[in-house]
Write a structure and sequence with these properties.
Layout: E1 2-11, E2 19-29, E3 34-39, H1 45-53, E4 60-65, E5 68-69, H2 75-78, E6 82-85, H3 99-106, H4 118-131, H5 148-160, E7 166-170, H6 178-195, E8 198-202, H7 206-211, E9 215-220, E10 223-228, H8 230-233, H9 238-249, H10 256-273
Parallel strand pairs: 3-8, 3-9, 6-7, 7-8
Antiparallel strand pairs: 1-2, 1-4, 4-5, 9-10
Length: 274
């Protein structure tokens, strides 16, 4: 499905700001794979997503999607088969347009000032109902009035209305409160399973990395240092995952949000033991 062979990318080469963001990275995802990605700050996780989406051309290597070479394919063409959610809930929707109009755009039915048939409205209503957050009752309201969690759930629905060949989730719950984040992640899992989507998800939540998907990818210094498949993943704990990263990367994981999450887990366990 997704085959990446030896891609590299250096920004500002030959200057004092030279940065090798991706170095000789290779990855092979089968159809239906759901891989979570964790890594240190600046490991190249989002840069990898940008390379896949065509935000820039890589310096070397090949990117194949569903048997097609997309290495030099323009970004807007790739967007037809690649869905992406960002950390910022404000991205991915048009705030001045209604929920119905946003869904019409996502479904390829036009959008603002365009006619949406009764049948399409009924479809949108049923799709929104599955989110279980009441948006089906607010279809004529501007998206700008929604909360961050509501917008992120809507964006996820929009990105999968016409199921993409590849779904990229770039820390899409990081800006949400824990309760809303859990709801969006559950929705995410349901949609991925229902459509049998191939999915990559960057996360700072170690427990989510363990609970979701069938693979865990660990990145450091622009490369994948460890690829944990489903069988090996079973029974792993957060501490075990951190130890594996240390073994694969040769150093401790350096990610502020992940380490904060780890401390919260330790505090919670300590409190429960008292």
């Amino acid at each position: 499905m997704l085959k990446i062979e030896h891609i590299s990318k250096t920004f500002n080469p030959g200057t004092v700001n030279e940065k090798q963001a991706i170095r000789d990275l290779s990855l092979n995802l089968e159809k239906g794979d759901f891989a979570t990605i964790i890594g240190s700050n600046g490991a190249g996780k989002s840069t990898l997503f940008n390379a896949i989406c065509g935000d820039f051309l890589t310096d070397s290597g090949v990117i194949m999607l569903d048997g097609q070479d997309i290495t030099f394919m323009p970004q807007h063409v790739r967007a037809k088969t690649i869905g992406r959610l960002y950390q910022d809930p404000m991205r991915g929707t048009a705030p001045g347009m209604t929920i119905e109009e946003n869904l019409a755009l996502a479904a390829g039915k036009g959008g603002w000032l365009s006619h949406v048939s009764r049948q399409e409205k009924e479809r949108f209503h049923e799709e929104l109902k599955l989110l279980d957050i009441g948006l089906e009752k607010r279809m004529t309201q501007p998206v700008g009035l929604l909360s961050g969690g509501q917008r992120q759930a809507l964006t996820l629905l929009m990105a999968t209305m016409n199921p993409p060949k590849l779904l990229l989730l770039d820390e899409h719950t990081a800006a949400l409160d824990p309760g809303t984040a859990e709801k969006v992640l559950n929705l995410n899992e349901t949609i991925v399973e229902e459509h049998q989507l191939t999915c990559l998800m960057i996360t700072h939540n170690m427990q989510s990395a363990l609970d979701l998907g069938n693979r865990i990818l660990m990145m450091d210094s622009g490369d994948i240092v460890l690829d944990i498949h489903e069988e090996e993943k079973k029974g792993l704990t957060v501490e075990g995952l951190l130890e594996k990263f240390k073994t694969g990367a040769g150093k401790m994981l350096d990610n502020d949000r992940i380490l904060l999450f780890r401390r919260k887990v330790i505090i919670k366990i300590t409190c429960n033991c008292k």
